[in-house]
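Design a sequence for this backbone.
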């Protein structure tokens, strides 16, 4: 058999409440040349029963002893037959044209290693504020990765060989494993950002990110500092200062701090783009206005 063009990875652990809706959203895609790998990470609820009810040959179920999401993701990545790998959490939904839009985007850009999109929030929890504009250039993506994770994991389509070269997901960075991978993957090639809301992100109190928020925040800070070292070519002390500066609102740091960042850090940024220049100019204008 010819391998599919896209492998969709969906790890699940005791996700019976929302699993069927997530699976159905993938099987209903307008782009049909894919396989859906659901990695059951030792579920003890109705997850196996729900998955067993499907007869669609594009669905493959991989069952593991419970070992956590990173082990499940790396196992799925190893078993994926396609060169391009999409992700969807078992409580989120893909819009019908998601894979079609992303496949068209990466097909037009031979240097691309990842494509991601905007999201729609829904569910029982309060919706967060509207996210910032998605970074469009490699330069601005690198700068944003120095402060936060601007990519929603459930929206990505990435190149399998590039992810393997980058070291895949790291077990010691569980709960921020995607943030770490994006930084390493950016060194492999270009990212494509689609402004369309191609994924519906479910907000609920039982989500893994909500239950492990403190661990996630600690790891995110650590990875953001590492990205400052990678992309701004700073030593560890400088990277800690730069990361804190990028996270803080303008009212919380001085003009001297911002001038240090512009003259000492920005000049070392590994890539450059008009988008990056415009963002830095806007931030500088805010500093001037405040002072």
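Sequence:
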């Amino acid at each position: 058999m010819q391998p599919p063009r896209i492998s969709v990875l969906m790890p699940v652990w005791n996700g019976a409440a929302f699993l069927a809706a997530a699976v159905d959203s993938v099987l209903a895609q307008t782009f049909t040349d894919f396989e859906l790998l659901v990695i059951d990470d030792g579920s003890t609820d109705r997850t196996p029963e729900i998955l067993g009810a499907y007869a669609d040959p594009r669905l493959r179920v991989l069952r593991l002893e419970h070992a956590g999401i990173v082990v499940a993701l790396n196992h799925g990545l190893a078993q994926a037959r396609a060169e391009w790998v999409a992700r969807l959490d078992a409580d989120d939904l893909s819009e019908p044209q998601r894979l079609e839009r992303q496949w068209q985007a990466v097909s037009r850009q031979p240097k691309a290693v990842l494509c991601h999109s905007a999201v729609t929030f829904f569910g029982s929890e309060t919706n967060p504020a509207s996210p910032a504009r998605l970074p469009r250039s490699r330069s601005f993506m690198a700068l944003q990765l120095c402060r936060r994770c601007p990519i929603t994991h459930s929206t990505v389509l990435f190149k399998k060989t590039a992810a393997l070269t980058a070291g895949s997901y790291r077990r010691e960075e569980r709960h921020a494993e995607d943030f770490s991978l994006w930084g390493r993957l950016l060194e492999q090639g270009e990212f494509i950002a689609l402004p369309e809301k191609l994924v519906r992100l479910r907000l609920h109190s039982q989500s893994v990110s909500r239950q492990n928020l403190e661990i996630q925040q600690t790891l995110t800070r650590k990875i953001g500092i590492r990205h400052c070292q990678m992309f701004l070519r700073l030593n560890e002390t400088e990277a800690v200062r730069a990361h804190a500066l990028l996270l803080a609102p303008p009212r919380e740091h001085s003009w001297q701090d911002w001038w240090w960042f512009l003259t000492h850090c920005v000049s070392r940024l590994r890539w450059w783009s008009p988008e990056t220049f415009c963002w830095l100019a806007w931030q500088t204008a805010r500093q001037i206005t405040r002072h």
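The first strand starts at residue 6 and ends at 12.
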